[in-house]
């Protein structure tokens, strides 16, 4: 929120600074001097259309840049943050030193428009051109910096905020000065033209805002990137409302809400809606979440169940097939029926299921590829949301139309979140290194040339023993198990929380 | 790797396949049995032993492009099979630790398998969207055993480096896109 406010303020001041351009002066004079000829009402109307045009122009440019950034990096939060901070700091330094604007766009709006078009229409079109930001002279490095930051942040919404702030800043001097041109506008115009210190002060203000923006982005980004350990010895998180449940190492499940902590005997636990589902040996038991009393539902004889998900109307559980592979069953709590919803071959694995209402998500991993499937249990429809023949996609969690999952490659493991409505665009909440022992890509003592295709991108995290494992997704936070896999039951795990 | 001296001769002119073959013939005639001497020690090379020109490696999950006889990735330093994530795997593609034990999660269940792709035939089409063939190869002595240096060939004139591809050991009409190798157990 603070970052957004400072972004808007920076864009606004950058827009105001634009009044010192040939076009900025021309706009004030064009609209202000028309009053005796066309009347105050026409000038006010023209100011309004100019302001709307400037807002529209700014919104177009910076929203497009945000969308472009979204397409370019689609995640990579750490690198994007570093780029945005670097741009802001460099531009702040340049503004503080008052360096020449490079590159400079030496173009102006078309002068004939004010003669051949009705003034309100011409003003509106002039506003669009000035709001676009890069069609006429640029008087502050902040404009270039904001463009870079919009791309680096990669959020169309952030771009829109920047654009509206910039458009408002471009419109303000015109809207304030033109209607009162005879009494105020002309005098201010003279001061602007004769006192370079005014522009210098505005550029210093730009510098201060850009520096503040860099610091705030750095602080918020660092906070966002830092995972918080919520269960030092826990695994398989599950979230419902403000309550978090996980599996402890000693056959105990833990439920935590605020300062209240409850424990119960279980080998697997899941919460959802008003329910708690636990596995005790080969039995799955449904409990009331409010009291942990039995809700009367008990599933037995389901083979060797492991991993659960529960919602108000469904329990879903995974069963290991004797010959290899998994089965995924869904039990309706309303109709007391059990249906087989997914299977994997003996070489494949089904991941831990996740439920949100009637919507089920699960992963399928095989040596030929991996995918995450979302299924509507009520309608019986399903779709593959993401898939890969190179990466391992696993550990889905659902919340309110969003999907959380783990994307592992030979360079990194990423905890990613995306909208189910727009699955192509996700963002990375947490990134760890790969578990692979990678070499330098060339034999010792040989040249490095030729090793490039196998190298990981710059900034890739270093190797780790920990695996991003089971996940849970709440309204504003995501949980993930950091597991150290082991042979002979020696796996260790902790659960961390990151903002989502 | 398989861009030999003949490739350099051909590459300096038109890079057409017949020139490469002509270059090969000239080299064979003029150098004669001297060429047989190569391999008495580890072959001098570019970024890995045996590779004699600048075409880059095929992307490999652990780096150096070592593969098994079928083209699946192996860890360079010990020849152990790895999956597309670079994890050691057993012959059933289950992830294992350094001692060969299957890795398990907190429930004691096996970790899920990751994709395992042949680094020329599978990985290149997946990543670059081009059709490739493993056409030709050459053998050199590396690390005490014979190494088979293999070209991953395509009809594209641009190699993985981003510049003009050479003919290497590829079939006529195809060019070296990237390179990888198989380490035999034959001592040398």
Concise account of the structure shown:
Chain A is α+β, with helices and mostly antiparallel strands. Chain A is built from 11 helices and 25 strands.
Provide a descriptive summary of the structure in words.
The complex is a heterodimer of chains A (500) and B (188). Chain A is built from 11 helices and 25 strands. In chain A, 49% of the residues are buried. The longest helix of chain A is centred in the N-terminal third of the chain and has 34 residues, at 40-73. With 500 residues, chain A is of the alpha+beta class. With 188 residues, chain B is an alpha+beta fold. Chain B is built from 3 helices and 4 strands. Chain B has a 4-stranded mixed sheet with strand order 1-4-3-2, with no helix packed on it. In chain B, strand 2 and strand 3 (145-154) form a beta hairpin. The two termini of chain B are 19 Å apart. The model of chain B is unreliable at 1-41 (pLDDT under 50). At the A-B interface, strand 16 of A face helix 3 of B.
Output the strand order for the largest sheet of chain B.
1-4-3-2
Task: Identify low-pLDDT runs of chain A.
Answer: none
Compute the CA-based radius of gyration of chain B.
18 Å
Number of domains of chain A: 2
Share of helical residues of chain A: 25-40%
CATH topology of the largest domain in chain A: Methylamine Dehydrogenase, Chain H
Give the mean pLDDT of chain B: 80
Chain-averaged pLDDT of chain A: 87
Proportion in β-strands of chain A: 25-35%
Number of strands of chain B: 4
Helix content of chain B: 10-25%
């Amino acid at each position: 929120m603070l970052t957004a406010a400072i972004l808007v303020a920076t864009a606004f001041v950058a827009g105001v600074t634009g009044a010192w351009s040939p076009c900025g002066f021309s706009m004030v004079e064009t609209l202000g001097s028309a009053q005796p000829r066309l009347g105050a009402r026409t000038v006010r109307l023209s100011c309004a259309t100019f302001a709307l045009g400037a807002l529209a122009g700014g919104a177009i440019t910076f929203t497009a840049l945000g969308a472009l950034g979204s397409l370019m990096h689609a995640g990579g939060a750490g690198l994007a943050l570093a780029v945005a901070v670097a741009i802001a700091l460099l531009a702040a330094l340049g503004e503080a030193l008052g360096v020449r604007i490079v590159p400079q766009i030496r173009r102006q709006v078309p002068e004939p428009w004010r003669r051949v078009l009705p003034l309100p229409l011409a003003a509106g079109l002039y506003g669009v051109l000035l709001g676009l930001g890069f069609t006429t002279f640029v008087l502050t490095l902040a404009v270039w910096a904001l463009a870079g930051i919009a791309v680096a942040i990669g959020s169309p919404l952030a771009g829109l905020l920047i654009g509206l702030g910039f458009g408002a800043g471009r419109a303000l001097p015109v809207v304030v000065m033109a209607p009162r041109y005879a009494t105020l506008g002309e005098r201010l115009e003279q001061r602007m033209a004769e006192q370079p210190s005014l522009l210098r002060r505005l550029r210093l203000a730009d510098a201060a805002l850009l520096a503040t923006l860099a610091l705030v982005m750095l602080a918020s980004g660092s906070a966002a990137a830092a995972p918080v350990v919520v269960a030092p010895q826990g695994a398989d998180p599950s979230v419902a409302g403000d309550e978090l449940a996980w599996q402890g190492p000693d056959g105990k499940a833990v439920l935590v809400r605020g300062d209240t902590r409850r424990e119960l005997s279980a080998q697997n636990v899941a919460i959802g809606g008003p329910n708690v589902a636990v596995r005790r040996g080969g039995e799955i038991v449904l409990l009331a979440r409010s009291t942990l009393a039995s809700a009367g539902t008990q599933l037995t004889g389901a083979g060797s169940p492991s991993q659960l998900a529960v919602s108000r109307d469904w329990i879903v559980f995974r069963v290991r097939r004797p010959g290899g592979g998994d089965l995924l069953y869904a039990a309706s709590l309303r109709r007391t029926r059990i249906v087989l919803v997914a299977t994997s071959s003996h070489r494949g694995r089904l991941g831990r299921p996740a439920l949100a209402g009637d919507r089920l998500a699960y992963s399928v991993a095989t040596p030929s590829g991996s995918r995450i499937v979302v299924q509507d249990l009520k309608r019986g429809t399903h779709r593959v949301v993401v898939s890969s023949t190179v990466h391992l996609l696993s550990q889905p969690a659902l919340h309110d139309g969003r999907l959380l999952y783990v994307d592992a490659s030979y360079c990194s493991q990423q905890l990613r979140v995306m909208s189910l409505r727009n699955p192509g665009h996700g963002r990375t909440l947490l990134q760890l290194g790969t578990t692979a022992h990678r070499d330098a890509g060339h034999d010792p003592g040989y040249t490095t040339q030729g090793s490039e295709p196998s190298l990981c991108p710059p900034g890739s995290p270093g190797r780790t023993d920990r695996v991003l494992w089971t996940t849970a997704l709440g309204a504003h936070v995501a949980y993930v198990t950091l597991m150290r896999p082991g042979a002979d039951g020696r796996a260790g795990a902790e659960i961390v929380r990151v903002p989502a | 790797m398989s861009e030999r001296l003949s490739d350099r001769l051909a590459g300096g002119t038109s890079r057409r396949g017949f020139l490469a073959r002509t270059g090969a013939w000239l080299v064979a005639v003029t150098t004669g049995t001297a060429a047989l001497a190569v391999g008495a020690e580890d072959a001098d090379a570019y970024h890995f032993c045996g590779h004699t020109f600048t075409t880059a490696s095929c992307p490999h999950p652990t780096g150096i492009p070592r593969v098994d006889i079928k083209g699946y990735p192996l860890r360079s330093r010990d020849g152990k099979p790895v999956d597309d994530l670079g994890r050691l795997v057993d012959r059933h593609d289950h992830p294992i630790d350094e001692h060969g034990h299957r890795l398990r999660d907190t429930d004691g269940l096996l970790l899920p398998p990751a994709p395992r792709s042949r680094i020329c035939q599978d990985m290149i089409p997946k990543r670059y969207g081009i059709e490739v063939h493993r056409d030709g190869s050459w053998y050199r002595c590396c690390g005490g055993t014979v190494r088979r240096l293999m070209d991953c060939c395509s009809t594209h004139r641009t190699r993985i480096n981003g510049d003009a591809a050479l003919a290497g050991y590829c079939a006529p009409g195809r060019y070296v896109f990237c390179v990888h190798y198989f380490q035999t157990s034959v001592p040398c």
